[in-house]
Specification:
Length: about 190
């Protein structure tokens, strides 16, 4: 938890190696064993390149910690729909940015290619994707979408930024250009 983490940081333990190499930690013996076991398991999943493990053990507002380790497997994803998920609502566009290229999947053109294309990524970055984008995609395409996820809504909320994406952009003083698909990019 964050209390244990703060206690370790304040004692000078700033990374896994310093914790594992310590004679003792400023926590109970039971908690020390749990921390050491957690580090061991985490290192195994990191070596395997498995961000899904970390997305299940990290709180939603801490998933940003996955970014440096898995940035080569990441896709930034946004969808546009005709509604909020009522019967008859559908996806009009899905845009995926992988750090190098933007891929647009458009209704009536290449939207169905998304099913295959998204399999190239192990970690998705969204805004409100946990509650909207991914459930909508799962229902629409009837696919599992099992990738790990960093949902910026929760990360930004933990930093005091509330509201929709546009509101958070304004609060952060970010100037964005509107794209023809209705989303925004820097």
């Amino acid at each position: 938890g964050s209390g244990t983490e703060t206690k370790l940081w304040n004692a000078g333990f700033l990374d896994w190696d310093s914790v594992c190499g310590a004679d003792s930690l400023p926590v109970s013996a039971k908690l020390e064993n749990a921390v050491l076991k957690g580090i061991e398991v985490s290192k195994q999943h990191l070596e395997r390149g498995n961000p899904l493990y970390f997305s299940t053990v990290l709180p939603s507002n801490q998933t940003r910690r996955m970014f440096p380790a898995f940035r080569d497997k990441i896709a930034f994803l946004d969808i546009e729909t005709t509604g909020l998920g009522e019967p008859g609502d559908y996806i009009t566009t899905i845009v995926v940015y992988d750090g190098n290229s933007i891929f647009s999947h458009v209704q009536g053109q290449n939207l169905n290619d998304f099913r295959h294309d998204i399999q190239n990524y192990d970690l998705l970055v969204t805004y409100n994707g946990i509650t909207f984008d991914l459930p909508f995609i799962r229902r629409y395409f009837k696919i599992p979408m099992k990738q790990a996820q960093i949902d910026l809504r929760y990360v930004l909320a933990s930093l005091g930024y509330r509201g929709g994406l546009k509101s958070c952009e304004r609060q952060l003083g970010m100037a964005f250009l509107q794209c023809n698909y209705g989303g925004s990019i820097l």
